[in-house]
Amino acid sequence: MSEKVLERHEVPKEDTWDLEAIFSNDNEWEKSAESLKSKLSEMDAFRGKLGDNAETLYQALRKQLELEEQIGLLYTYAHMRHDQDTSNSFYAALQDKAYGLVSLLNQKTAFVTPELLALEETKLNAFIKEKKELSLFAHMFDQLQKQKAHVLSNEEEELLARAKEVLNASSQAFSALNNADIEFPSIQDKNGKDLQITHGRFISLLQGKDRTVRKKAFEAVYQTYNSYKNTFAATLSGQVKGDIFTAQSRRYESAREAALSSTHIPLAVYDQLITTVEEHLPLLHRYVSLRKKCLDVEELHMYDLYTPIVKDIEYQVTYEEAQKEVIAAVKPLGDEYVQKLKKGFEQRWVDVQENKGKRSGAYSSGTYGTMPYILMNWQDDVDNLFTLAHEFGHSLHSDYTRSTQPYLYGDYTIFVAEVASTLNEALLHHHLIQTLDDKQKKLYILNYFLEGFRGTVFRQTMFAEFEQMIHERSESGEALTADDLTSMYYDLNVKYYGPDMVVDKEIGLEWARIPHFYYNFYVFQYATGYSAAQALSKQIIEEGQPAVDRFIEFLKTGSSDYPIEMLKKAGVDMTTSQPVEQAMKLFEETLKQMEELMES
Ligand SMILES: [Zn+2]
Fold first, then answer.
1. How much distance in Å is there from the Cα of 395 to the middle of ligand 1?
2. What are the residue boundaries of the Oligopeptidase F N-terminal domain, all occurrences included (predicted)?
């Protein structure tokens, strides 16, 4: 890789993604966009008629899918062209046009769902019997029927739709306060120079080696939150009340039930996660002890949680080496999987290098009928190696799904998406531990895993527990004052981190700065997805072929089944304690490896 950041046009072709495979040039895009626009009005003929007869229903749904599929290509091409160089105004405009088309299509098809919901189940079944092609839609109909009890009258729905903006006010106020208005003080860095704290710098300061700086940054940030705590309590409490209002209006027992039912996840999954993680907290306490020992401190404080405990090492990984490592790592998944992955490198799925104006970070994208593209901003380090494995997990999931399922079920939900990607990371971890000779590198990888596990399973479960507590408290009519929130959050930290951690009083205010508490019961999915992936990787390594077959089948299912059912067939029943327990075993084994290697 070159030292200086290139302009987009200077990037060698072999390091760019092959978007010409979607549209050979921008003119082709325009042509397709024009043809789509002229076809949109064809939906009008079906408005108010979906219940007329089986044939009309079928033709309407086919037409909708056809338009969606075409718009998928237009949108994908435009947004990825824009991401490769966001300073290119032509592609910024193309992306805007694509957004415009999506919103036109949404308007044209807005009648479909309400009309489907209004259909009697018996009538729908008769239609399916009469026209067998409609059975393709059976799972989709089933999903709609499950929502039916929570759909209100037209007037009430309209009222709820109008209330939406008002209900968003708390989250917007939080975001304005937390991102724009709040100002953190300056502290002195290790050279005695003044350093203004920002959100971004806060985490890197906590990751730093200078303990005095860490402590100062930690105290300064939470003192700032302390001076706004009543406002933050008001925004969070407003958000919680909004969640409850929507849930109760839709006749759900609780806000948590409403949130989970939108993706058909039983409450047992959430409960099981919290109970099982709590039972294994002694493992987190043991990791905290190891951290204390490695850092060689008298007292371990909350500001000692992010600093590395493995000595700095030279651990560079070039993109070429990373390709080899990822290919070797996924070998347990069988030849077909490996071949598909190699094809990804050969067919230019990946946009590798950073260039001026390119969107930061990494993702896997694409749509039905395109390659499952990957955006990277490559740096020669371990983080990028794991990211590459992760994104290929998503892309191969897409590849298996799209080459098996019809367009209708050619995507997948968040709940299962992170399973496919994290599983690749787990296999990479296993592969590196098996093949690395260098003790320091091995320690680095072991700690990389433990930190990832702590941040994803333990921390997100603690968040999930807090989220549940504050909603339940509000549902029972109690107030959520700043002091209540702080003491609940503080107690959770004491429970999670255990006796070797000095839980500084400041951490009680952390709830104030976490945007995820405004996502309405979203974060638990990070912990469940990660646990499921670790459990499945363990099965694949220990059990071999049968576990591999189940997993590949899972990758092929797309959204043609409910997430919990799909995972059950893959080998993890998320309504039981089994997956989290298996993941915890892996955590324990890794912890033991690290403890032993530190001693040797
Ligand atoms: Zn991901």
1. 10
2. 115-184
